[in-house]
Write a structure and sequence with these properties.
By secondary structure, the protein is of the alpha/beta class. The protein has a single domain, classed as Alpha/Beta hydrolase fold, catalytic domain (Rossmann fold). Helices cover 39% and strands 9% of the residues. It is built from nine helices and four strands. Strands 1-2-3-4 form a four-stranded parallel sheet, sandwiched between helices. Helix 2 links the parallel strand 1 and strand 2 (72-76). Helix 1 packs across helix 2 (56-67). The protein is globular, with a radius of gyration of 16 Å. It starts with 31 loop residues before the first helix and ends with a helix.
């Protein structure tokens, strides 16, 4: 949720027309469902579209796919429904301590959360910290609440899921019906890009 489009620097699907999606500033009352609706309108997402989302973006991809019959909805390092969510989701929902954090602190916590994302080489670690530091603290606080309160139980058609077996944010033991990449962390889109690209191209060519 702290990333921007640079997250996809190592992804190569250049044979297709690619439209990067930037976060838009949410209203404080937005849920993932209403925010997904705004993304749809902003980027003119239609039934013939293919939408690819990572982490928070994957959850939003599910919400978009519930509203429009996408050609393909592809999730990377994400979850499809609340039954795939880790236990800490319910803890954050019951005890929303993120609400107490000052906005100015939210994008300065990279050193605390980076270990949860797995080992990174120096260039990836720098990019991770830079994305986090430049993201909107208002967006991050909203996203923490929206994700914690997500209660989706519907998996729409044409959903494809790519997940790493070393993901600490969304442990693989909770994940169902996914292509598993061995050694893939939550940020495998960086260090396992070759494998992710292989499966993306396979899905897109089906």
């Amino acid at each position: 949720m702290g990333a921007d489009t640079r997250l996809y620097n190592n992804i190569d699907i250049s044979e297709d027309e690619v439209v990067p999606v930037d976060w838009i500033e949410p209203h404080k009352t937005d849920t993932l469902e209403t925010y997904a609706q705004k993304i749809m309108y902003q980027y003119n997402i239609r039934p013939s579209s293919v939408v690819i989302g990572t982490s928070l973006g994957g959850m939003l991809t599910i919400e978009i796919a519930k509203k429009v019959n996408l050609k393909k909805a592809i999730l990377i390092s994400s979850i499809k429904a609340v039954n795939e969510a880790p236990r800490y989701f319910s803890i954050f929902k019951a005890l929303p301590i993120y609400k107490l954090l000052p906005l100015m602190l939210l994008n300065k916590l990279g050193f605390l959360i980076k270990p949860m994302f797995g080992h990174m080489k120096d260039s990836d670690a720098w990019l991770f910290n830079d994305m986090l530091s430049k993201n909107s603290p208002k967006f991050m606080k909203w996203a923490l609440g929206a994700v914690s309160n997500w209660g989706n139980i519907t998996i729409p058609p044409n959903v494809h899921h790519i997940h790493g077996d070393k993901d600490r944010i969304f442990p693989v033991k909770n994940i169902k019906d996914a292509t598993i990449i061995k050694g893939g962390s939550h940020l495998m889109i960086f260090d396992k890009a070759k494998q992710v690209n292989k499966w993306l191209k396979s899905i897109l060519n089906k």
